[in-house]
Specification:
Elements (H helix, E strand, L loop, with lengths): L1 E8 L2 H18 L3 H22 L2 E10 L2 E10 L7 H4 L13 H8 L2 E6 L5 E8 L2
Magnesium ion (MG) binds next to helix 2.
Length: 133
């Protein structure tokens, strides 16, 4: 079972709104302040990537209830240019925009589970999950 709410990312203010949504859901689920910060940082990085590379997309936050476990899943989706070499963008320091290239590897480290689906022409879908313990 999951309950979802979404923010459309078009401008920089939407990144702030997505962070706020994530923080609220994380609080509701009972995540501590350190995990709340990890979750909102991950949301910022994914939302900023949508804004920079795809121009437009969506961040949805799911509450998960699975096998007696509770968790939060960030779903980031866009119909932008997509990524041709996923292994490359998951390396620390790889950036096509002169950035630090720390965003995606950082999100993977901050969350418990990380899945990325992307290919040129099909946009990018990323799911990042954190379980409550
Ligand atoms: N949603 C996306 N659509 C298309 N390409 C993307 C998307 N997200 C990331 N990328 C590609 O992956 C690369 C790595 O992303 P990552 O967030 O790790 O680093 P960065 O955005 O370049 O720098 P930083 O996030 O550290 O400021 C980007 O430079 C970009 O080429
Ligand atoms: Mg980035």
């Amino acid at each position: 079972m999951s309950i979802q709410s979404c923010v459309t990312i078009i401008n920089e203010w939407d990144i702030v709104a997505a962070r706020q949504l994530g923080r609220n859901v994380a609080k509701e689920l009972g995540f501590g302040t350190v995990d709340q910060a990890r979750i909102t940082t991950a949301i910022s990085e994914l939302a900023r990537n949508i804004y920079l590379y795809a121009g437009k997309g969506q961040i949805c936050i799911d509450k998960l209830y699975e096998d007696g476990k509770e968790g939060l899943r960030i779903n980031a989706a866009d119909n932008g240019p997509g990524i041709s070499d996923i292994r490359q963008v998951m390396e620390d320091g790889f950036s096509t925009s002169g950035g630090l290239g720390a965003g995606l590897p950082g999100v993977k480290r901050l969350m418990d589970q990380f899945e990325i689906e992307s290919s040129p022409g099909n946009g990018t879908q990323i799911k990042a999950t954190k379980w409550l313990r």
